[in-house]
């Protein structure tokens, strides 16, 4: 029994809390994205209509971050990250280019 | 994977009943008439209280690895772990079988742990006037004189090593400490891209940028908000539960970034910087 308890514990530990890898952001055309998305004006509904749903994190504050991506060649992607306020309006936008050290997908 | 194991340990430790009665830290025994005795328990130790010995080991690790942050000093930092916990007026004590040493907590909920040989001998616990699982603890290593809204990567490297050595993060019950230690040594966690040691910013963060000489890189989205992969129902098992919007991973394992690398934050409540995106 003494030896069973640690094994059971290990099994429970290794089996618990499983999560899946996050989905990458939906791939969009960067030019169109830059034209259509305007901080302070663009709404959640407009994003969904223009680009569709993507990876989103909703925080306890009601604020959300959304991740879209754009093809950057050679299998790499540019990240396009949005901050939506509680009313569902884009407040901030940022762009992260791919770097040579990024892992390939 | 490491994060999963750490949070699993935490979940398990919360769910598992204490295998032995909480140790009585200080007792007053009053013989009563006849055979009845009155016992007053002035405080008890929770099985998941922080180990004083381990925290001292963390402080010793700080001294050994001080070259990572030569100008920095070490404090410990208390952060909210569960919703609604009152983070004002926290008091701390080092509590052994026959000793209780008060620890001064400053308004920013940081403290320096005093060294006490008797507390070490008695394998004391560091006990707060809050339920232990309502807070998360971190080492705080800060080089003075950095620009506002920045951290230094060497400081973060040392925070990870000290925090893991001090047993601040796993929060598992003593019953599982053997397993916890086997899976979460400071080296394994802090020197591996899969170590997933969580750092917290002062305010909700929108972007994190690394700068070292001419090299500048923005952290990818997957290194913010605990990777963005935690389903809501699993958040209670992560010590980022109420700090998710302040959570990031730093590439402390990547020695392509020197210790002097500056890690700067753009916060959610700041105006959009000029010229972005």
The pLDDT mean of chain B sits at: 82
Number of helices of chain A: 3
Kindly report the oligomeric state of this protein.
heterodimer
Beta-strand residue fraction of chain B: 25-35%
Describe the sheet with the most strands of chain A. 5 strands, mixed
Q: How many runs of DSSP E, i.e. beta strands of chain B?
A: 15
- Cα-to-Cα separation, first versus last residue of chain B: 33 Å
User: Strand arrangement, largest sheet of chain B?
Assistant: 3-8-5-6
Structural class of chain B: alpha+beta
Helix run count of chain B:
6
What sort of overall outline of chain B do the alpha carbons produce when their principal axes are compared? globular
Give a count of the beta strands of chain A, DSSP E runs of length 2 or more. 5
Largest interface pair: A-B, 38 and 38 residues
Low-confidence stretches of chain B: 1-32, 171-176
Q: Biggest sheet of chain B, open or closed, and with what strands and sense? A: 4 strands, antiparallel
How would you sum up the global shape of chain A?
A: globular
Give the helix proportion of chain B (percent range): 10-25%
